[in-house]
Amino acid sequence: MNAIRKIGNLFSLFRQAFGEYAWSIALMAALNFLSGLLEGIGVTAIIPLFSFIGGATKANDTISLAIAELFRFLHLPYTAKFLLFFMVALFLSKAVFLFFSQQITAKIMADFEERTRSMLLRITFAARWPFLSSQKVGHLDQMLTTEVVASSSILYYLSGAALVSANLIIYSILVLNISTIIALLAFISGACIFFVFLPLLTKTKIVSIDMVRENKRLAHFANEHTIGAKTIKAMHLENQTLERGVTLLSLMRGLYLKTAFLRNISASLLHLASVFFVIGLFAFLYKTSAFEFASFAVVVYALNKVITNVQYAQNHAHTISSQIPYLQSVLSYRKEAETAAERDAGVLPFAFGKELLFRDVDFTYQRGEPALSSILLSIKKGEMVGLIGPSGSGKTTIVDLLLRLIEPEKGEIVLDGTPISHVRLKDWRARVGYMSQDVFLLNDTIENNIRFYSASVTKSDIENAAHAANILAFIQSLPDGFKTMVGERGVFLSVGQRQRIALSRVLARKPDVLILDEATSSLDTESETLIHESIERLHGEVTLIVIAHRLSTIMNADKVFVLEKGKIVEEGKPGVLLKQEDSRFAKFYKQQS
Ligand SMILES: Nc1ncnc2c1ncn2[C@@H]1O[C@H](COP(=O)(O)OP(=O)(O)OP(=O)(O)O)[C@@H](O)[C@H]1O
Ligand SMILES: [Mg+2]
């Protein structure tokens, strides 16, 4: 019962993963089956051939009679020579069928890999931010490389399984054609062996689940530590890091050995079982049979084939069992990512005429205390608004709500009276620019980093934006100008230069609203002044929402909001708040000067 349920589960898993290739798989299986069939008939033709050569009595088993009948039907002389041609033709066609079936397998695998990879990329980029932010670095990489390849190799082994089953059936028929008893014995032993070895297959799968997990951990380890390499070097922690990596590797080694042991023990046991079976059979035949030589040779050949194919089947089953967890991992990620798909219910275009308003907004992250509660804030078009407050007070959470990366748990955010969720997400994100402290640069040219996939951004937009971000003179001073490569994550540039390039990127898209989250916090005064000047130039043209630790950055703001523990505790014009001795703003100011 259990075995049947397992097979059922397996079937539904394969249908889910490979369902769209059902017809190609059927064709592949049919071709494999045909090639097995042709080989089987070719081999059987040995019986009449031998009886011709030996001049013995005419073979009178079913297949030999059928071949004789076929020759009569085709009006071909039933002679040794023509029988030989017939066999050659059979083996040749078998080779042709096998070639086509292998080509089809390769095509299905290539299609599967391409489609699965593009599906993985698509659903990943389409997922909501909270889902994406919880993904570990290296896992997607691991899925795209190892897991997809392991999954598609299942197709290869399934194709092999079609050939193996065809061979098994054909050779069993061959044996059956000559001796019912031997066929029955072989079938019963085969079935017993299958059930005896089933637990080993299950064990293989369990070990393989651990292997999938460890592979992911290794990818995560490598990626995480590549990103953090500078810190590791600077702290001289190479050895400790290595030690952790090596622990992982030795764990993987153990798992590999376990899988190999299970596979090898199965193969050896099977081998032993076959030897006993063949010896038993010989003893049986020796006592009871009165076979003619030709039939006897074919039975031995066919039995040998049956056993070899059972061994193949066993080996394939082990490999498939060990690859299934990779496929399951891909499918379960697909399910999670699809459930986490970002949905856009917005149908309205972005139109900002007057005011952007937070109405009583609450937000709590999955674990922990409310990050924001009862937030009321109003931002008028063209204003520059400052958000200040201690670390962890909820400033970035407000930004993420504005970027629609997360949604309010209670209350709403409205733009000129329209809930922002009614605005098309694509339009929203095109109109709302964002820049944070951790700049993301591609290992590409400065120009491509500013254009950043936006086909609508022209060369002059790029130059104007670079000018507005106070980086044009620097870029022009470089030998390769805008064509200068920035290095991996921008390492060829200083942090201040990277930030001004990131600012140019946002400005080149000419946003209506620009959000700067601690954009200048890590800069020296000179770099900050440069960005400051750019912001000042935008003041009045673009609605600015600026988060800054340094109050100097927002002294020119039209309004500041002071946040504390997720609540707005103060708001007003910086100059006015500064004059009120007991205001929090004034206290912050004193602390900083
Ligand atoms: N992804 C998250 N999951 C769980 N809690 C989070 C998450 N992001 C932020 N928090 C928590 O929410 C609160 C507000 O965080 P937020 O990042 O908005 O603060 P912040 O004002 O921007 O701080 P900082 O000035 O240090 O950047 C903090 O207590 C933080 O621990
Ligand atoms: Mg923050």
TrEMBL record:
It comes from Candidatus Taylorbacteria bacterium RIFCSPHIGHO2_02_49_25. The chain crosses the membrane at residues 21-50, 82-100, 154-174, 180-201, 261-286. Residues 356-590 form the ABC transporter domain. Its main location: membrane. One of its GO terms (cellular component) is plasma membrane. It comes from the Bacteria. This is ABC transporter ATP-binding protein. It is found in: Cell membrane. GO terms for molecular function: ABC-type transporter activity; ATP binding; ATP hydrolysis activity; ATPase-coupled lipid transmembrane transporter activity. Residues 26-322 form the ABC transmembrane type-1 domain. Keywords: ATP-binding, Membrane, Nucleotide-binding, Transmembrane, Transmembrane helix. It is a multi-pass membrane protein.
